[in-house]
């Protein structure tokens, strides 16, 4: 009851604030972006289309804080969007997204490679040429073999590195049989990754894959010297190929990075590397992080998901504070997964009962309303290429339909309802608030959901992403948020609905969907060379998933970001889920 009253108060306050400021909203372009810190003369949403507080001054310390911690800072053992963004400070990938404002930031550009990949006509062979003279922090030159090894360890050794996507394993010839570098001691390794010389790497695929350049932006292609690799312990001593190296690291408290003396600006057209030092502080209360942002004692919230609902009124009711905010769509979806291998969710009608019972409008309003997103009916958000508008489980005002929910319960043999477990991440207050609101919606139709919360950094490796744990603990419902691996329908869907993404630990297909029709549609779509036909395929895949009814799309997520006064070179990157671009960010203190 207290959470409902708080949510209602927040919604009213925000509505008043937005109404008061709507007629005064201004052009998003920041014509005076280099005046004043973070805010200055910049207006609300300025960093969505420009670089705010632009500077070329070197020095200072950029300070990040996070409410929990990463899945891992090891570039080969992470799937968190903010770590993909952050890892570019110490790991150079074959290609990357351009550090630039607005839509220009979605452009893929060469990084460790000299150009984008060169593809065969059938998109089954891709070749990249590496830059010469790129060095690790110990002075040794980066070679194609270091990139090959990085991919082998990150995709084929789940016994040590369980996080991260499985694209390479699925698409490389022989990937389904290769045991990884810790078990396979043969000198040639995976034969479908060829390194004929120190600067050439060629990928041989078992089927066409037209999005290879997008895949090559992943931190899994950041080079790792085999002699330095200690499996899961490599995170303690990561060898840098980027402008910063680790001085210290603690899983519980964070990390400190300083300049890598072997990094050469001449070989890196992507990064300016302005700060002298990078600090990452972990396990800081989420609302405390907001206070630090507003007090200008840190540079950014590393998670990049925006201010908490309790903090929003503090900035949205004051014109000068609202001017320091950016409210982009994140290209992400907040949703609830239903595991099809946990009873009674093995019955599609029981799943449909939940679809109709959930009050999506109430879920959005519980955390502040429209500044946090819009009610959703599809998996693919409208801002991601391949989106198709449809709603298979429409309810009046997106508030749920008790009559249809109860009819579905009767159809699935549970007219009196049932009990299940709903999981959420404890250090994400808004996610817990939404889970509580859903719990109340389900209760109205006779479904009792016991909420259990877990830390973000263990959520997938130990709990929701571990099928054995899910089945044992009757975790039929799981809160989840997902953003596109890259800005296309395939980059959004594959790792959450493809059967090949089901893993013993660290999984992201929380529904455990393994539908042959869906798997084939994904494979056929990504093998389509024609761009228009390929993008048209993704809306059809989305509809197949929604017909399965195992995902409840809650809302298309927005981030309410805040620019502290001392933050420099602030711009939103759509490529990294609507957070700020960490390769540009600096401190003017």
Strand content bin: 15-25%
Mean of pLDDT:
92
Q: What is the molecular shape?
A: globular
Number of helices: 17
Give the N-to-C terminal Cα separation: 44 Å
What value does the Rg take, in angstroms? 23 Å
Structural class call reads: alpha+beta
Give me the count of strands: 23
The portion of residues assigned to helices is 25-40%
Task: Tell me about the largest β-sheet.
Answer: 6 strands, mixed
Low-confidence sequence ranges: 1-40
- In the sheet with the most strands, the strands line up as 14-18-13-17-15-16
What would you note in describing this structure?
The protein has 589 residues and is α+β, with helices and mostly antiparallel strands. The protein contains 17 helices and 23 strands. The protein has a six-stranded mixed sheet, sandwiched between helices. The longest helix has 21 residues. The chain is globular and about 70 Å long. The N terminus is likely disordered.
Helix-strand layout with pairing:
Elements: H1 2-22, E1 61-65, H2 81-86, E2 95-97, E3 108-110, E4 118-119, E5 125-129, H3 144-156, H4 167-171, E6 193-197, E7 200-204, H5 212-215, E8 244-250, E9 254-259, E10 277-281, H6 286-294, E11 300-301, H7 312-316, H8 319-322, E12 325-326, E13 329-338, H9 348-357, H10 360-365, E14 373-375, H11 402-411, E15 418-425, H12 429-443, E16 447-454, H13 456-463, H14 467-472, E17 477-483, H15 489-497, H16 516-526, H17 531-548, E18 551-558, E19 561-562, E20 567-568, E21 572-573, E22 579-580, E23 586-587
Question: Could you list some keywords that capture this structure?
Answer:
single chain, 589 residues, alpha+beta, 6-stranded mixed sheet, 5-stranded mixed sheet, 17 helices, 23 strands, 27% helix, 18% strand, globular
